[in-house]
Amino acid sequence: xxxxxxxxxxxxxxxxxxxxxxxxxxxxxxxxxxxxxxxxxxxxxxxxxxxxxxxxxxxxxxxxxxxxxxxxxxxxxxxxxxxxxxxxxxxxxxxxxxxxxxxxxxxxxxxxxxxxxxxxxxxxxxxxxxxxxxxxxxxxxxxxxxxxxxxxxxxxxxxxxxxxxxxxxxxxxxxxxxxxxxxxxxxxxxxxxxxxxxxxxxxxxxxxxxxxxxxxxxxxxxxxxxxxxxxxx
Length: 233
Description:
By secondary structure, the chain is an alpha+beta fold. Helices cover 27% and strands 33% of the residues. A six-stranded antiparallel beta sheet has the order 4-5-6-9-8-7. It has a two-stranded antiparallel sheet with strand order 1-2. Helix 1 (5-18) crosses helix 3 and helix 2 (31-37) crosses helix 3.
């Protein structure tokens, strides 16, 4: 069956994107050029482009042209992966900036979650960058009783996730996700434009029944998305 002409053009563009022949930021041919190439009307070429714009693959810049959109970072809901590995798997560079490291004695929900009533908890705040652009602000609380050498680690070189997995392998996790309006501090640390929301992921991890960490992870909603894959028998 012959595909509609706008689908033919859209498939052509998709192949260029998939093969990376047209990389991120590449200015694609104009509607007129595509219409001429495929012996179609300019309106048909426009429909093809609009379909790919709606899918987040292309971006129109008025009076300038249409460009290949950078792919959004993705993280799995059903798998806890090292953010460094995720970024490197996309062929990008991961780096970290440690904003603070401290020891505290928590109360309320945090003390209950980490079973740390009248016990010390370590806290770190770290910004993870992908190609020098902030992708995640990690606010992490860790049981000092379970991981006593935590603050001695250099978290500008080793991720918290990587270190914790080496000393207290993950056996259970509880994850919640919500969209929030970022505070001024979050906007500053994640370099967010006005009006851009954050994805807030709260993650509690345990090792053999013992609470190890309570993490609050903030991501720019325009640069990050969460995915999941479920296989049913």
